[in-house]
Structure formats: structure tokens, C-alpha cells
Amino acid sequence: MPDFWQSCGYHLLRRTAEGRLLVTDDYLRAYYARPELAPIAESCEAERRLHASLMAEPRRSVAEAEIGALVDPDARENFRVMLRFRDQLLGAPTLEAFYADLFVRDVAVPPDFVAQTAQVVLRGILEGTEDGLEARAAELFFREQRVTVDEGQIMLADAETVDLHASGGALGDLGRLLREGQVPQRTIELDVLNQDNASEYFNRDERHDTVLNLNVGRPGCLALCRVLERWIAHFHGVRVNIKPVREIPDDEWRWHVGLDAEATAMLNEIYNGGEADAERMKRVVGLFRTEFRDPVVLRPEIAGFPVFLGLAMGPDGTLRMKPQNLLVNLPLEKQ
């Protein structure tokens, strides 16, 4: 089976019989090896000792006095943040439980760590997939995307990659399209992931330089639906069918979940009787109908009705998905 996202640390984890992820010492060591914590030439002896001791015993208790002995104030803060994060990880039975708990309690965790946790959980969910489109669609869950609509085609590219090559030189026509929105579609076909070249994703999975077409019914959009289904099944243990739609019928609209802040605000406003102007509506890049295979899992007032999902870009053309909304906002009977 194709391997991918090797740097996320998935192979350092263990899995339970139920497929949940367990933190290991090597997974913690990978965090200690991050540039924020790894000693540099200017590091004091106390910092070197602390780091070496954690690499040897990743779960050992660290007294505040040990951190206070570090000369560099940035190093002291970095170790405090990392050890607080480590203790929260170890306090949860699984990595999934840690991630879900982040959004029901006021827990201070660096955004990068939250995104990395979502990525490694998704890597476990997608274990065994041979579909590069699914893996690329899953990047929406933990990496910001830059959206361009060109002649009706909704194209998503990695925001960091686009910004890195803002001049358009390194990314060629794709870079210019995303910056100017004026390049004809045919000039970027080789950069767009589709059914014919989906396997190519696994040769460049950590370059983040492929484009996803999110138009209704296109392979990229359908791949995102499948990843959403698997995400819900993994965390909630319920089976759903998700399909893209062009609009939400009034007679079926009982519940919705925005998959990002922009879509949440827009759907809430419309559902409550307001109107979104035409320019704002153009920011919607995806609407999805979710049907629960067993309606009993839903609250009685929602049972038998679909749940609609929305995805929208912000005014700056960036899509910042919040997959945690599917953990806390679905109308499940036992939430």
C-alpha cells in the first residue's frame, strides 16, 4: 500500500484493537527534536541536560526549578509549552480522545500542534488507501488552502506553497492563476489531481503542490465526501452518506454544520431569516448533504432529516477548515 505523510509521526504510534492511536516514547521524542527545543550552540548546560534527560526518559516529571534554571527565556517558555502539551497527551487514553477533548474544554495548545494531531489521526484513518485524491482532500483538514474560481472551476491549492512561490516562478502557470485568477484553465491541467494521475500524489505527498478541483460531482469533491464520512465514523462510530449538492432545500433544512468560520456564519444567518449578498455567496465552495444510515443516532427532532455541511473561503480567498466542528456540532442523541 502507498505510504505517505511520513513526517507526521504516524509510524511512531501504536494502535489499539479498535484502531485508536496510542502515544509512544518515540512519538514524544519527535516533538523534543523540534527546532524550538533541540539545543543549539548557544544553549546553556542546564538546557542541554534537560533536553538529554527527556530524550532518554520522555515521560519523566520535570520540576519547575529545572526549567527556571535555563538561561534563555524563550527556551524556558518553549519547554513549558511542550511539557504542558505532553502531559495533556499522556492524560488522555488515546490520541483521538486528546484531540476531541481540545474542543470541549479551554485547553491551551499551540495551533500547529492541533493541526499536526489532526493530520496524524487522518493518517490512521486513511491507512491502506490507494486513492491519492482522498489523501489530497484530507489536507483540507489541517492545511490552509488558497481558492481560485476560474471559468466556474473551483480550484484549491496549498496556501503556504502558493505564498512561498508568490512570484509564480516556481509554480509556473498555477502560481500565476492563484495570484491573478486570470490564467485559462487549460494551462494548469497537469498540476490538477484527477482520477488519471491520482497515484502521482504519493510521489509528492509532502510537497503540497497539487491542486484539488472541488466542483460538484468531480472526483476531488467526491473524495472529500469520502474522507468526511470516514472522519465521522472514526470519531462517532456512526455511518453516514455524504453527497455534494448545489443548494439546501428549505423543506429539508433542519440542521447544518459549517466546516469553517465563514460557512458557519453564513449558514446561521440565512437559516435565521437573514440574507447573504451575492458577492458573499460566491465564497461558498461546497455544500454537502449528510444522511445517517441509522436515524436513531440523531436527536428525535432531527431524525429522518439530513444534516447539511457548508464550506466557504474567507474574504482573502483562503479556506481554513475546522474539522472539529464535526465532533461537537452534529445533532447526535448521545453527544
Short note summarizing the structure:
It contains 13 helices and 10 strands.
Q: What can you see in these coordinates?
A:
There is one protein chain. The model is unreliable at 169-175 and 181-190 (pLDDT under 50). Strand 3 (145-150) and strand 4 form a beta hairpin. The chain has 13 helices and 10 strands. The chain has 335 residues and is α+β, with helices and mostly antiparallel strands. It has helices spanning 25-32, 45-56, 64-68, 73-91, 95-101, 111-125, 132-138, 159-164, 172-180, 219-236, 261-271, 278-281, 325-328; strands spanning 14-15, 21-22, 145-150, 153-158, 212-213, 240-245, 256-258, 284-292, 307-312, 318-319. Helix 7 (132-138) packs across helix 10. The chain has 3 domains: 6-125, no CATH class; 132-213, no CATH class; 219-328, no CATH class. Strands 5-4-3-10 form a 4-stranded antiparallel sheet.
